[in-house]
Amino acid sequence: MEFGILGSVQVCDARTGQRIVPVGAKQRALLGALVAKAGQVVPCERLVDELWGEHPPANAANALHAHVARLRRLLPVPAPGPGTRRHEGLVTRPTGYVLRLGGTDTDARRFTRLAAEGRALLAADPARSARLLREALALWRGAALQGSGRGAICSAEAALLEESRLVALEALYDACLRAGHGREITGELEELTIAHPLRERFYELLMTALQRCGRQAEALLTYERARRTLVHDLGIQPGPTLRHRMQAILHHHDPDGSLDLDGPGPHPGPGGSLGLPVRPEPATGPAGGVPGRAPGDDSDVTLLREEIAWLRRRVERLAQEQQDLLGRLDRLMLREASGLT
Description:
It contains eleven helices and seven strands. The radius of gyration is 28 Å and the shape is elongated. A four-stranded mixed beta sheet has the order 3-2-1-7. A three-stranded antiparallel beta sheet has the order 4-6-5. The chain is α+β, with helices and mostly antiparallel strands. 55% of the residues lie in helices and 6% in strands.
């Protein structure tokens, strides 16, 4: 038997193949809270709050007991665990109730095990890492604890599981990049940056995938999209990882060392292959510093500001040329349509 909370709350009986879904939000909230705290005694007060929030019934203890009794009748009796003669799944304790898993499992625990195994293989075997992570993510049927209300226990568990899912997704696409499958994942990463616009790691992975496909201009536009979103929504600039990736793209270098972008490829020629200005390299003094600036001054900050200003001009120029090209295409299509008519 397996309890499922990676989606709507349900119980799968492996002996019969039957899937049991509690009817009613309170039954789902009760089962979801008990599964989330499996093996722990959940106090009655917390369960009352989970089911009714700030408006409990007059006799909340009796109402809770009635829901527990109905849930017991709904659930199949799990097999005894190792070394035990009898196993009762939902047990009453003096202060509350506890769901004892015994020989059963939960899809959330299976997901956690598979995701951890996949992340552990990320560097050594990225192809197998990606397979394990996809297997883990395939266990999700929807939002965690979907339809279980907004009680404190279910809400907190759903948030933790969702964060674990996003971390597993980040590891999956990292593994795909390490395995050389950047072209296959750009579309999925585009969707993830739209679905999670404040998660910088998805932008960084997308920029890396685009860079390794030779689509540096699109990678730079992705950075600018991330920067504008972060500034608009959070009032912050992109973090160091995203900035380092942007710098790597500007210098045609892969900081992971897995791809040499200095050889033949879609690099801008004199004046820029897309009509963009070539970035001037800062002059250096005898020791590699900037002439006229003493060590320890604000030269690094100044250079960074110049770099950002140059990047903005470059991206704006590219965006304008893209709009011009689209306008020309529209005009050509209109002329062709007019000729046909």
